[in-house]
Amino acid sequence: MLDPASRSSGVHFLSAHAVIRQLIRSSGVGPGDLVIDFGAGPGTITAPLAATGSRILAIERDAAFVRKLNRRFADRPLVKVVHADLRTVPLPSKDFFVVASIPFAVSTVLLRRLLSRRSLVGADLVVEWGFARRVVAARTAETAKWARKYELRVARRIPASCFRPAPRVDAAHLVIRKRR
């Protein structure tokens, strides 16, 4: 059961286990990698990420979810729960990955933060479908700059029915990889 605040704030939790497994498999993360799960919520992505042996930063701004995450992962030393806003939390200076289903409303802000970092190795993000298509197709100065440093592509469309509660629009699996 979702708490009432989640329903009223436009938060939609990815609940399709097959999609979550595909995100993690696509990311290629494994033992020793530093991985951020932005907007960790109840930990539906955090838990399977932890099973990879990666070091996980579960970033969550909602205090109730932070308490639940701390309880859930108390015996998992590789999972660190951070009570912070993804728009302002300091990003690592060491190489890191992101695997997350991010709030649609902050997609642009987060992408700008991530793609300005030299330490971002790759990201597998769940974002709003239209946003993902615009990012990979746009020909602005900003997206051209991103494309010089990173490969950006849409891996697949994710139906709204894969979320609880379902958003009004579909989502996309956006893949970002640092160019060599």
From TrEMBL:
One Pfam family in the UniProt entry: RrnaAD
* Biological process per Gene Ontology, one example term: methylation
- In terms of superkingdom, the source organism counts as Bacteria
Among SUPFAM superfamilies, the record links this protein to: S-adenosyl-L-methionine-dependent methyltransferases
Q: Where is the Ribosomal RNA adenine methylase transferase N-terminal domain?
A: 19-180
PROSITE patterns cross-referenced by the UniProt entry? RRNA_A_DIMETH (PS01131), SAM_RNA_A_N6_MT (PS51689)
Query: Which GO molecular function annotation, any one, does this entry have?
Result: methyltransferase activity
Residues given in the record as S-adenosyl-L-methionine binding sites: H12, L14, G39, E60, D85, S101
Cite the entry's keywords alphabetically: Methyltransferase, RNA-binding, S-adenosyl-L-methionine, Transferase
Protein family (similarity comment): Belongs to the class I-like SAM-binding methyltransferase superfamily. rRNA adenine N(6)-methyltransferase family.
Protein's name in the database = Methyltransferase domain-containing protein
- Species source reads Kibdelosporangium philippinense
Lineage per the UniProt record: Bacteria, Bacillati, Actinomycetota, Actinomycetes, Pseudonocardiales
